[in-house]
Each structure stands twice: as C-alpha cells, then as structure tokens.
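Continuing the batch. This is chain 6 of the set; chains 1 through 5 are on the previous pages. Same settings as before, nothing changed between runs. Recording input and output for traceability.
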Amino acid sequence: MDDRMTRGRLLLRTLLTASLLAACGGGSASGSGSTEPPASLTQDASAQSTASTQSGGGSNLALDGCTIVTAADAQAIFGMPMAKSDAGTTTPQILAACVWDGGPGTGTMALVSKLLQFRVWDGSVFYAPDSYKEMPGFEKIDSLGDGAYAYGTGSFDLVILVGERTISLGASGFLPKDRDQVRQAVLGLAHDVLGRI
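Output for chain 6:
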C-alpha cells in the first residue's frame, strides 16, 4: 500500500473519529465539539483530492448538505424537531456537510445530543472498511452504492462509496433499545439521499 493511500486512510480515521466524538458528546456538553485533523494530513488529502478531480475522478462541486438531508429527514429518524447545527470539521475534501441536532436527552442520556450527521467526501480513499472492521457493530451493507458498511453500537454510522465520492450518514444520541429502529431509518434515508445527489 502506498504512502498516499495510508495517509488518506489515516485522515479518514481522524475525521470520522472527530465526528464520532462530537456525536457521542465529546468536546462539549451538547456534543457539538469538533477536533481538527493535523494540517499535514489535510494538505496531503487535499493534494490527492485535487489530483483525483483533475484526472476526472472526482468533483469539487459544492453541495448544500442541508438541502440533501433535511430537517424533516432528521425528525423522521428521531421523532422530534431538529435544528441545524455547526457542521464541525470542514476541509477541502468535504463537498457537503450538514448536522441536525435535537438537543440533549434526559435521564442517562442527559449530556448526549440527538444528532444526524451527513458528509460527502471527494475521494474514494475515504471509504475504508478494512480500517473499521474491528469496530463494535461493524457490518457490510449490501445493495447501497458501490459498497457500504456501518459501525457503532451507541450510534449507527453508515459509510457509502459512490464512484469517487464517499458519503457518511450517522445517527447518535438514541437509547440502545432503539438502535434497530434507527438503523432501519438511516438505511432508508440513505437510499433517498443517493437519489438526491
């Protein structure tokens, strides 16, 4: 495996970990904190993304993530009104991003926000199932894009490859007993999202 691929996977792992930490409440009581990846990794992935775009493999078209995954979509998953939140980490490799926040829960979930996070990455390098196969809840998903996998037990984080784009869609802040229901809702939304991009 070449250095570029290794650094790209490391960047993906760093950015997805930052998203996961934000979704699980890392960084602030509302769970909206973010962690910036090291500048060297972002620059390397940016160079790779630019090379991919110049060779016709990707697109720098900026998309409005909140018109692709809407407040109504988020409400359908959580059954409550959702407000647009800061999308957190942004890099040149992110073509679209949106985060919907339902606010903190109650009881044992009092410090955890209900979040629906969506991102479109410029590059297939961000699709790295082998890097996540040891994560709790890892599963391959059939019949979605050019490949898909999910992971998480306190969340449901879905990653889809579509051509040279990688799409991430994750829900968090729900009770463990609701995971199967959230899983089905996110998978249903993913099919709709692919038709909107």
